[in-house]
Amino acid sequence: MENKRLPIMCPSCSQPLDVTRLTCPGCETVVEGRFGLPLLARLTEEEQAFVRTLVLCGGSLKDVAKAYGLSYPTVRNRLDAVIARIKELE
Known about the structure:
Elements: E1 19-23, E2 30-35, H1 45-56, H2 61-68, H3 72-89
């Protein structure tokens, strides 16, 4: 099965999307309603990858810099940008 990325923005008007239906693949139970996406799911793919790398590096910006092949200040600036984005989404 191909790993498809969950769309987070409407392709027509660019508004954030809501989840309206969840289905259990085991028993086929369906839950319907209007559910907002979790905050981290609303980050861009690049921002999510950065957060994932940060977590896998145990929070060490030095290790993130090494993983990306970037300088520490550049990684710090990216972290600051992700922090600002999360604050914007809250």
